[in-house]
Each structure stands twice: as C-alpha cells, then as structure tokens.
Automatic annotation (TrEMBL):
Ferredoxins are iron-sulfur proteins that transfer electrons in a wide variety of metabolic reactions. Keywords: 3Fe-4S, 4Fe-4S, Electron transport, Iron, Iron-sulfur, Metal-binding, Repeat, Transport. It comes from Sporichthya brevicatena. The lineage of its organism: Bacteria, Bacillati, Actinomycetota, Actinomycetes, Sporichthyales. PROSITE patterns: 4FE4S_FER_1, 4FE4S_FER_2. Its cofactor is [4Fe-4S] cluster; [3Fe-4S] cluster. It holds the Pfam family Fer4. This is Ferredoxin. SUPFAM superfamilies: 4Fe-4S ferredoxins.
C-alpha cells in the first residue's frame, strides 16, 4: 500500500483525501493514515500532497519506514481512549475525523 510519512504531521492538508477513489485515507489528530488493507495502490494521492508526505511503502525514505507498521497499528490496535480497534470501516467518510493518533505519532515533536 501507500503510506503517509512524518511530513503530514501537524500539516494535514487533506488534498489526498479528495483524490482517493476508495476513500481509504483516515483523519487522525495530528496526521492522516492510509488504510493498508483498503488501499488499492492506485497512487492518485501521491502527487497532490504539497509536502510530499506520501509514497508507496517500498519507496519510502528510511526515516519514514516506521510509518509502515504504524499504519497497521492505527487501524488494528486499540488506540488511547478507544474501546476497540478502528478496523476496516470501508471508507473514511463513514467514520469522520477519528481525533486520535498512534502512540508513535503522538510522541513525535511538533512539525514545522
Ligand atoms: Fe497529509 Fe499531504 Fe494528505 S499533508 S493530509 S498527506 S495531502
Ligand atoms: Fe487511495 Fe492513495 Fe491508495 S489514492 S487507493 S490511498 S494509493
């Protein structure tokens, strides 16, 4: 799948969301997350991000590699303050802004 890296943190431009044909880009608190099982690898989101935060997993910069596993954490582990995993809602607009991040993203310093 495609993955959103650290450049999105505290920026959250959201242009990517409008391009995704399967609505698999979900809104956290400081960052957006691409659903690793819902993404169909179409690549439409990548060129529209103004801070070039998005890449296919195998093309990510080394410093962004933790965001690959972190995307799985976001959807399939229980995030702080929630009772169950986000799972696979089948569309970001079905769930709205989730207003939560993974512990990894929450721990990162302010961006920009
Ligand atoms: Fe983030 Fe870029 Fe999308 S800043 S919200 S990945 S357009
Ligand atoms: Fe959507 Fe980007 Fe995947 S547009 S399908 S998240 S490659």
């Amino acid at each position: 799948p495609y993955v959103i890296g650290g450049a999105c943190i505290d920026v959250m431009d959201k242009s990517c969301m409008e391009e995704c044909p399967v609505d698999c880009i979900y809104v956290g608190d400081r960052k957006l997350y691409i659903h690793p099982r819902e993404c169909i690898d179409c690549g439409a989101c990548e060129p529209v991000c103004p801070v070039e935060a998005i890449a296919q997993d195998r093309m990510l910069d080394a410093e962004d590699e933790p965001h690959i596993d972190d995307a799985t954490t976001f959807f399939y582990e229980i995030l702080p303050g929630r009772n169950e995993p986000v799972g696979s809602p089948g569309g970001s607009h079905n769930v709205g802004d989730l207003k939560v991040d993974t512990p990894f993203v929450a721990s990162l310093p302010p961006n920009g």
